[in-house]
Amino acid sequence: xxxxxYSDIKRFSAxxxxxxKGARAEFERRASAxxxxxxxxxxxxxxxxxxxxxxxxxMASSTLGAQWYDxxxxxxxxxxxxxxxxxxxxxxxxxxMENVIHGMYAGETPPDQMAGSMGAxxxxxxxxLTRATVSAALRSDYEANVRRGLHPxxxxxxxxxxxxxTCAFCMMLASRGAVYLSHESAMxxxxxxxCDCVVLPFSDGGDVSGYESALRHFNDVYYSARSAIDNHxxxxxxxxxxxxxxxxxxxxxxxxxVSDPWxxxxxxxxxxxxxxxxxx
Length: 280
Description:
This protein is mainly alpha-helical.
């Protein structure tokens, strides 16, 4: 069984990011011509432009994700049915757009910043379609085996491969290795807005040529933080900061502002940042 090299993965990541940045650039250029004197009309124009560009560039992004999945599958287990492209998540897109629109009406986002704020939504949703397409294709392959009565083997897994300037959250998740579809968690599927991590199917990350030293570094940073927590070696100042962050986070969770309550991974990422100043 073979996997793409780290160089292959970085090229794919760069292509995906180029698409999403191109979508954002076009949105901001066209949105700059909108007249914000009539806010109601301006918000309708922003919504329509955002949806149009997410659909247009999103199709290219999803096609790229499908091609990536087919390439990874061919290397790992051979050819199969071509991966299918997917549509943007309309509910999630509408939610993010309305958050920006609300900021305009509430006076939190000045008109001259609207193009950039909504442009970030465009970039997020276009870029996310590459990962979503790979995940959907792997899930489809997995479920097809189940329907045929075949016991899904351990090959139906994926790993997060970190690319670029890796944050503590992504480093922590990348260090965990394979995610098996039979028990993948909600946390494993989280990606922040400007994340360049790549979903690599049929791999645990340890078999990627050129990724070995980066993965060792991620593991060292992650396990150093875990050890400090488990062995009660955190300084008082950090423990106080963690307690305050936990309280604020859970207040936001109860208010419906975040989807999950405070978890151990939140504590680990805080310790990783404390131990590695400059890590974001």
